[in-house]
């Protein structure tokens, strides 16, 4: 079997995974496209470069470079997206979009865990979170935000009423939604 066929088979096997985030997303295969690809059969890695797009259901990751490291067990791949700005997008079960960006995004498929670092930011409607590192758990839809204590950064929350006004149906009271930022 020639090297091109081996590369295609390795790539297909790397992305034939199921994870445990939003059920509708994790039942879908992972697809990656890019302008260039390099596979190392010896190290079980595939590196995609130039205009990289990863999709899995409603999940969409874009980057300048995506390194996929095959795990020792099925569905234990580590995907590392890097770039001037790498992005993550997902439509959640309630229909709300979640958008994130950072210079470094790692996706641990088996854990359903996205870690954003280096200029990390997550937005959902009118809410925004900035921090040194943001960890997003896909299944529980929870965020953990940390800041760099040595730089005396803090997380700040600002409540914006606009998001709930858009969702208000018959309730005449106004609600607020947090906007969280980390000073950098």
Automatic annotation (TrEMBL):
Residues 172-184 have a biased composition (Low complexity). Component of the lipopolysaccharide transport and assembly complex. Coiled coil: none annotated. Residues 163-184 are annotated as: Disordered. NCBIfam families: outer_YhbN_LptA. Residues 1-21 form the signal peptide. Pfam families: LptD_N. It comes from the Bacteria. InterPro entries: LPS_export_LptA, LptA, OstA-like_N. The keyword Signal applies. It comes from Psychromonas arctica. The keyword Cell membrane does not apply. Belongs to the LptA family. It is found in: Periplasm. This is Lipopolysaccharide export system protein LptA. Keywords: Periplasm, Signal, Transport. Residues 31-141 form the Organic solvent tolerance-like N-terminal domain. Involved in the assembly of lipopolysaccharide (LPS). Required for the translocation of LPS from the inner membrane to the outer membrane. May form a bridge between the inner membrane and the outer membrane, via interactions with LptC and LptD, thereby facilitating LPS transfer across the periplasm. Its main location: periplasm.
